[in-house]
Design a protein that fits this description.
Shape: elongated
Order of helices and strands: HHEEHHHHHH
Largest sheet: 2 strands, antiparallel
Strand content: 5-15%
Helix content: 55-70%
Distance between the termini: 43 Å
GO cellular component, one term: cytosol
GO molecular function, one term: transposase activity
Protein name: IS30 family transposase
Domain Transposase IS30-like HTH: 6-28
Structural class: mainly alpha
Organism: Corynebacterium hiratae
């Protein structure tokens, strides 16, 4: 592929939609001004990968990690065999005036099954002293 190819030409060569290519170039490319004053967009796949990896870093603590109170309530509810959806809905109702005590069901599932190999799962197992409480998900 030539650096002068259009987004449509590149997209056709790599079998992707032109908007995907244009978005990638816009997000991870940079502009240079030639000697004659015309702007050109430049793109380097390695630099784009490095930039993307930097954006993926999550320095922000997750809500369950930054609030021991919320984490305790969620663990108690899970110990009662409540689903993450039910917990999320109950928290929204019970703590309607306190945004810090709300969490989405996706965040609870993430803490159970994905994040740190299920950091919340280990805590729940400690509370319940059994692994049978957890809903088996996927191939685990």
């Amino acid at each position: 592929m030539s650096c002068r190819d259009s987004a449509r030409a590149i997209a056709q060569k790599i079998n992707r939609h032109h908007s995907v290519v244009a978005r990638e170039i816009t997000r991870n490319g940079w502009k240079i001004v030639d000697e004659d004053g015309t702007e050109q967009l430049r793109y380097n796949a390695h630099n784009a990968a490095v930039s993307t990896a930097g954006r993926m870093v999550r320095p922000k603590l997750r809500k369950l990690d930054e609030s021991p109170t919320l984490r305790g309530v969620v663990v108690d509810c899970l110990a009662r065999r409540w689903s993450p959806g039910r917990i999320s809905a109950w928290l929204e109702h019970a703590f309607s005036d306190d945004e810090s005590m709300r969490i989405s069901h996706e965040a609870i599932y993430s803490a159970l099954y994905i994040q740190g190999k299920g950091s919340l799962r280990a805590e729940l197992e400690e509370v319940m002293k059994t692994k049978d409480v957890l809903i088996r998900g996927g191939s685990t």
